[in-house]
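Re: beginner question about structure tokens

> Can someone show what the tokenized structure looks like for a real chain? I only ever see the sequence side.

Sure, here's an example I had lying around. Input first:
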Amino acid sequence: MKIIVRDAAAADAPALRALFLASRRATFVWQPAGAFRLTDFDTQTEGERLRVAEVGGQIAGFVSVWEPDRFIHHLHVHRTHHRGGVGRALLHALPGWPATRYRLKCLCANAPALAFYAACGFVEIGAGSAADGEYLLLESGGRDGP
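And the corresponding structure tokens:
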């Protein structure tokens, strides 16, 4: 099925909130379920550029970027679209991809995401610790995967 990536619109907010909540609850299983709220989406993406991926007219995923630092804050794909090219399509839609370098933090406990980013050409440039766990700082390598 065809993936369409576009800028998010205000009308997308309810679907994006629901996707963000469901994705984090399913992915970050080491966190208590009550740690996530529907309104987290609004506070965690405020001021960021949002792009959504649609499949069959439905939102299948989104990416949020803090543009001044080219920092990918969130990339979430609906579970039914995992391994379907949605995440890669969202990355490809970033301005200047793949030559423009983007950075992100990925929790070490999120092995599937780390594998995805490695396959997309991201390399480790640092590491750290935050309230939600150990993370790696990754940067796109100016190419699109191996």
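Each token stands for a local structural state, so reading them left to right follows the chain. The radius of gyration is 14 Å.
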